[in-house]
Amino acid sequence: MSTATITAADVNKLRQATGAGMMDCRKALTETNGDFEAAIDWLRKKGAKVAALRGDREAKEGVVIAKTTDNNKTGFAVCVSCETDFVSKNADFVSFAQSIADAAVANNVKSIDELNGSSINGAKIADLVNDKLASIGEKIGITKLERVDAEFVASYIHGANRIGVLVGMNKPAPEAGKDVAMQIAAMNPVALDTASVPTTTVERERAIVTEQIQADPKMAGKPSEMISKIAEGKLNAFFKESTLLSQPFVKDSGKNVADHLKGIDADLKITEFKRVALG
Predict the structure, then answer these.
(1) Are residues 66 and 174 in the same domain?
(2) What is residue 188's predicted lDDT score, i.e. its pLDDT?
(3) What would the pLDDT profile of 136-186 be if each residue is shown by its tens digit?
């Protein structure tokens, strides 16, 4: 039996992140000793419909800025976090976040530490963040930084600075880049294609679908080979739904993203993408 103390706040956090019922969330946290990610897996294994698997619905506020260099060969997506939407929607705070993203571009940074060590008008960004914290009275900071280098990089900001996307391509294609970036913002793919899915993600999904199948009374006594075959079929469905090039294109569901790109230019390819969301 679990020894962790499960608070109402823990249950509510899991409920908000997954959409599962309150009692199911409490049971999941109890069974997993309070491990949040394991509780999500527990809910899925028990057949619960989980609304958000990758954390976009967590309650952190802030501003996400995505932008590229003038030659469109490097892109940066920066998240400057705060505690409340009152601050995140304030024009001065948005402008502050924009100035930090501008500094990321100007200084060609590769990490949050480098960005904090950069300067704006002679003042170190880390010091400016501390000054802003003192004046606003909320904990703020640069919490995420992603970078893409490619022959052409498209950037896109979605939902009042709540999601930023960078798309690296092998040749200039601004309109296609924007369309794909909008796709990524809306559909949150886990990888570019099946070969790009991290092994840990594949094994996690395989374990979940296998346990779901084994829990089905109709599968009682069925040979392991049959269960494995069905599990691989479900995995393939996951890849189709969750990898960018296989996803139905949001502007024309009759084709997938790969087909859409081929229709524009047979040689056009996505080389990399990054998606930064609040939470």
Answers:
(1) yes
(2) 95
(3) 888 889 999 999 999 999 999 998 999 999 999 999 999 999 999 999 999
Of residues 56, 54, 16, 18, the one with CA closest to residue 39: 18
In sequence order, what are the residues at sequence separation of 6 or more whose Cβ sits closer than 8 angstroms to the Cβ of residue 180? Answer: 154, 167, 244, 257, 261, 270, 273
What SS3 class is residue 127? helix
Q: In angstroms, rounded to a whole number, what is the distance separating the alpha carbons of residues 230 and 210?
A: 8
On whether both 65 and 169 belong to a single domain, the answer is yes
Non-local (6+) Cβ contacts of 124 within 8 A are: 116, 117, 118
Domain containing 53 equals 1-57
Q: What DSSP state is assigned to residue 209?
A: H
Nearest-angstrom CA–CA distance, 203 and 70: 41
pLDDT (tens digit, 9 = 90+) per residue, 54-77? 444 333 799 999 999 999 999 999
Rounded Cα distance between 70 and 86, Å, is: 32
The answer to whether residue 225 is domain-embedded is: no
User: Could you tell me the CATH number of the domain that includes residue 121?
Assistant: 3.30.479.20
The single-letter code of the amino acid at 265 is D
Indicate the SS3 state at residue 60: coil
CA-based nearest residue to 154, from 39, 48, 74, 217: 74
**The total number of structural domains that make up the chain:** 2
